[in-house]
Amino acid sequence: MLDYGGHEQAFPFYIVCDVSQTMWDPDFNTSERIPLDVLQDAVPELIYRAELDPTINDAAFISVIEFSSRAEVILPLTRPADTRDIRPFTKGDQTDYAVIFELLRRRIDEDCRRLSATYALKQPAVFFLTDGIPYVGDHEQPQSIWFPARNRLLAPDFIYRPQVVAFGFGQARPKVLCRVASEQGGRRLAFIADRAVDVSAVLTALIDTLFISISASVAQGDLAIRVPEGMSWACPLAAG
């Protein structure tokens, strides 16, 4: 896919997965399948489907990042067709939002500088999947710790500032998701699962929605998001 200047387009997508203890420990789960097990199967399948989709494979670059008390890239930003193996997710412990936003700022800056030398770069998109709240030590991580890192990622003067879409399930809180997400069309891009729907079913539908969203975004050149089945908007529509 070429832009009007004759350059190939590059549309970076980052899939960020919470792998903290509540995602894999049976003591915290009553769902049909352990959430982390669902992701272990569904994320590689998403990459495989993307590889087979000409629209996506033409312009999309996808990275997968996990986080708990530490954040780690398990798939560097890559065209789907160039992806070989995605290593299994780690069973993490706590949920440090500061470390993931710090890593995202560094990685997006490095990745986009590299891509922009060759491609017509689209605004990056981050899909942030979490089943709870930021939690470090024996208490909720204060917003004063993690929110500045989030704001540095979304700072207006960051040339590669991404759009961040937050998806919450399990014990996730709408207010936290709304602080994580960026805004599009006067609304925070945050979604919360219906507590009555099994988490494993929500995750399966969510990954399917990510595939559709990536395809639609690449086709139209801007981030296109739909509400995943079993989820709803987490934040009220801004007045005005």
Would you give an account of this structure?
- With 240 residues, the chain is α/β, with parallel strands linked by helices.
- The protein has a single domain (9-233), classed as Rossmann fold.
- 35% of the residues lie in helices and 23% in strands.
- The chain is built from six helices and twelve strands.
- It has helices at residues 35-52, 54-59, 97-116, 143-153, 174-180, 199-220, and strands spanning 9-18, 60-67, 71-78, 120-121, 125-130, 135-136, 139-140, 163-168, 183-184, 187-188, 190-193, 231-233.
- Strands 1, 2, 3, 4, 5, 8, 11 and 12 form an eight-stranded mixed β-sheet that branches. The protein has a two-stranded antiparallel sheet with strand order 6-7. Strands 9-10 form a two-stranded antiparallel sheet.
- A hairpin with a 3-residue loop joins strand 2 (60-67) and strand 3 (71-78).
- The longest helix has 22 residues, at 199-220.
- The chain is globular and about 50 Å long.
- It starts with 8 loop residues before the first strand and ends in a 7-residue tail after the last strand.
Top keywords for this entry?
240 residues, alpha/beta, Rossmann fold, 8-stranded mixed β-sheet, 6 helices, 23% strand, globular
End-to-end separation: 37 Å
Sheet having the most strands: 8 strands, mixed
Give the helices and strands as they follow along the chain: EHHEEHEEEEHEHEEEHE
Under CATH at level 1, the class stands as: Alpha Beta
- The number of E-state strands comes to 12
Q: What's the mean pLDDT score?
A: 92
Count up the helices. 6
| Helix-and-strand structural type | alpha/beta
CATH fold name, please? Rossmann fold
User: Could you state the oligomeric state of the chains shown?
Assistant: single chain
Number of domains: 1
